[in-house]
Amino acid sequence: MKNPVIELENVSLALDGKMVLEGVTFGVERGEFFCITGPHGTGQTLLLKLCAELLPPTTGTVRRNLQPVGAEGSLMHAGFVFEYGGLISNLTVFNNIALPLRYHTSMPEEEIADKAREALALLNITEFSDVLPARLSVGTRKLASVARAIAMRPQIIYYDEPTLGLDRDAAQRVEAVMRQMRERGATSLVVSHSAEFVKRSAERAVVLIGGRMAGVGRVDELSGGADPDVRKFFG
To answer: Distance between CA 166 and CA 174 in Å, rounded?
Structure first.
């Protein structure tokens, strides 16, 4: 690859003695919109966490910025959207969004507040700024998670099912923000079990079936390729 920001080489993952991912190899280009997809329950979220350094591989190598994960200097300016929000329960929505800026930067509080308000406005959830997560709907928690992930304008954003559980209007808002982040140069690594979302949004994808890599490449090539299970997934 010309300019890889993430590379996995023969990566496997075992949990509780059971192999759940095996022999996964692919790379993601800087600025690319790349999807991890396939049928439910076949390891997509685990693979995303391996890429984001939230889990270590059992075997194989994960590189970010051409360095092994865990090596000095390998960490990037990144954001993560968790499937169920992952908000801190005793912080308001505003303070959840502001927390990474307070923790990872030396910005003055006024600038942090401006960036948090901008993220809230992009997702159209300003009215929930002072609300605790327990009082939010599932969909609004997801929108707040997206707002938190983009507030620092990260170089790479990991999205775990970013539109799952959202109504049509909210899903369109999230997709619009994802496109905006991509236009600003962010690399997007997205777990989605929706074949329609992948075909609509991604340049390339890796398809997992049964914990194994059934295919990787351009989405149009995968959907019309030789593997019958991959063709079936894409309909």
So the answer is: 9
What lies within 8 Å, CB to CB, of 234 at 6+ separation is: 195, 198, 199, 219, 222, 223
Report the DSSP beta bridge partners of residue 173. none
Q: Which two tokens stand for residue 190?
A: 């997205």
H or E element at residue 118: helix 109-122
pTM summary value: 0.91
Residue listed under structure tokens 């991604």: 202
Euclidean distance between CA atoms 191 and 204, whole angstroms: 12
pLDDT digits (tens, 9 = 90+) for 35-61: 999 998 889 999 999 999 899 999 999
Residue where the block lists tokens 């995303």:
48
DSSP class of residue 129? Answer: T
Over the stretch 189-199, which tens digit does the pLDDT of each residue have?
999 999 999 99
